[in-house]
């Protein structure tokens, strides 16, 4: 029915020899049509399902022109291993083909790395810098290098990276060789062999997993409906937002350029030619080449939008700053990205199911029984501080006011109102 309502949607249902559910993959038509206008950097991850039959939810997302999450494909499988990731990436490549300049970012799961080398020959595979930090804390327990590591991973200049990696080695002598063994180009911006733009983490996937936290307790069919509904809602909301946009670039990029402009005001220029400038930023000196669209810090060329140093050179040359931004940031492409509509499913009683589909009997997967109550919350990694939210309505931990379902006793409400009256003091009426 999903394909009937959204033609050209790709689905793949795989059963075991006994006829039990094994894998489910689907990629909506609207996602396949919109990805052509997004930066070719995708984030991949698997999340545990919390229901009776357990399993994994596989997700691939990228960022749209306004730096919002753009889901590409979903999958459900039994476990996270070589076979499941091979099946998932095979389907993903059949839908999206050979995406020019593709970069894949994930955690360090060995199956993901193995399958990417096998299916996407020559495609750069980067590591999420946040997951890399968790690996460091697991291996070198008791050390605190968070801020130093983040600066190292985000550094644009090679010499800046070298100074920071030496500082990390001084903290723990084995840390430097360990990071080099993992390969600098996979987790650092300075040595990256693929254009990751500003996507150094897979935190956008964590947003997906959190959004579908309750839904991951549902059966597969209900979970698939919620996945589709999420994409449907996001497409409508962002299409509406994009149609209202009057600027040449998307709102988030306009804000970033404005911030870079403010930073460029305090800098000075030395001219070498009509297109080459020396930029003086305090004690730092760099060279901007507007014709080549490069700057010494490499941010200009890596993110495909002017940094503060390029901004002052562009302003001096009286050129249009928008001409130096990638087409991925244009509001016109943002509108085309969400031009496709995700159509809703009718009521189940109105479904017209073909006989060949109706005759397929899908048995539930085998249950891997474990003793005790099923765990629903994830075990935090070493060094990861799990934040617990406090509801402003019932004062309980673990949820927000908007999702609060706890009853508020009437006497407490009256007591609260009475306290407010007493605290306001005597009446001012004479």
Briefly note the structural class of the backbone.
Answer: alpha+beta
Number of helices in the DSSP assignment:
17
Largest sheet: 7 strands, mixed
Percent of residues in helices comes to: 25-40%
Strand content: 5-15%
Rg, Cα atoms, Å: 26 Å
What does this structure look like?
There is one protein chain. The chain is of the alpha+beta class and 430 residues long. Helices cover 39% and strands 15% of the residues. The protein has 17 helices and eleven strands. The protein has helices at residues 2-5, 29-34, 82-96, 110-119, 129-139, 146-154, 158-171, 175-182, 184-187, 203-211, 220-244, 251-264, 299-303, 308-316, 331-337, 355-358, 410-423, and strands spanning 10-15, 21-27, 41-48, 56-63, 69-77, 103-106, 124-127, 268-271, 276-281, 284-289, 294-295. The protein has a seven-stranded mixed β-sheet with strand order 1-2-5-4-3-6-7, sandwiched between helices. Strands 8-9-10-11 form a four-stranded antiparallel β-sheet. A hairpin with a 5-residue loop joins strand 1 (10-15) and strand 2 (21-27). The longest helix is centred in the middle third of the chain and has 25 residues, at 220-244. The termini are far apart. The model is unreliable at 413-430 (pLDDT under 50).
């Amino acid at each position: 029915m999903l394909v009937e309502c959204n033609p050209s949607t790709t689905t793949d249902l795989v059963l075991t020899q006994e006829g039990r559910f094994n894998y489910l993959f689907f990629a909506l038509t609207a996602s396949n049509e919109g990805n052509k206008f997004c930066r070719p950097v995708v984030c991949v991850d698997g999340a545990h399902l919390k229901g009776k039959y357990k399993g994994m939810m596989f997700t691939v997302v990228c960022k749209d022109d306004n730096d919002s999450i753009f889901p590409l494909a979903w999958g459900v499988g039994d476990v996270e291993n070589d076979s499941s990731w091979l099946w998932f990436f095979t389907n993903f490549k059949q839908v999206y083909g050979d995406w020019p300049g593709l970069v894949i970012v994930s955690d360090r799961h060995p199956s993901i790395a193995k399958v990417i080398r096998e299916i996407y020959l020559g495609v750069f595979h980067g590591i999420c810098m946040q997951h890399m930090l968790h690996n460091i804390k697991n291996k070198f327990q008791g050390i605190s290098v968070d801020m130093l590591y983040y600066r190292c991973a985000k550094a644009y200049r090679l010499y800046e990276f070298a100074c920071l990696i030496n500082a990390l080695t001084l903290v723990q002598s084995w840390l430097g060789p360990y990071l080099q063994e993992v390969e600098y180009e996979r987790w650092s911006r300075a040595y990256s062999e693929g254009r990751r733009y500003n996507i150094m983490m897979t935190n956008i996937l964590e947003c997906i997993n959190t959004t579908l936290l309750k839904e991951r307790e549902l059966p597969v069919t209900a979970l698939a409906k919620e996945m589709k509904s999420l994409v449907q809602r996001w497409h409508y909301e962002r299409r509406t937002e994009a149609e209202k946009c009057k600027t040449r670039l998307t709102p988030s990029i306009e804000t970033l350029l404005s911030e870079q402009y403010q930073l460029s005001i305090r800098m000075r220029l030395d001219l070498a030619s009509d297109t080459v400038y020396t930029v003086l930023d305090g004690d730092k000196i760099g060279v901007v080449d507007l014709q080549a669209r490069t700057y010494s810090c490499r941010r200009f060329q890596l993110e495909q939008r002017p940094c503060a140093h390029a901004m002052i050179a562009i302003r001096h040359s009286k050129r249009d700053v928008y001409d130096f931004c990638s087409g991925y940031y244009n509001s016109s492409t943002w509108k085309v990205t969400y031009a496709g509509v995700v159509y809703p499913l009718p009521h189940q009683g109105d479904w017209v199911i073909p006989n060949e589909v109706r005759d397929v009997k899908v048995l539930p997967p085998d249950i891997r029984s474990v003793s005790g109550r099923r765990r629903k919350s994830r075990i935090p990694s070493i060094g990861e501080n799990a934040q617990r939210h406090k509801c402003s309505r019932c004062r309980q931990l673990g949820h927000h006011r908007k999702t609060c379902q706890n009853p508020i006793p009437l006497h407490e409400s009256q007591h609260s109102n009475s306290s407010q009256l007493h605290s306001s003091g005597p009446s001012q009426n004479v």
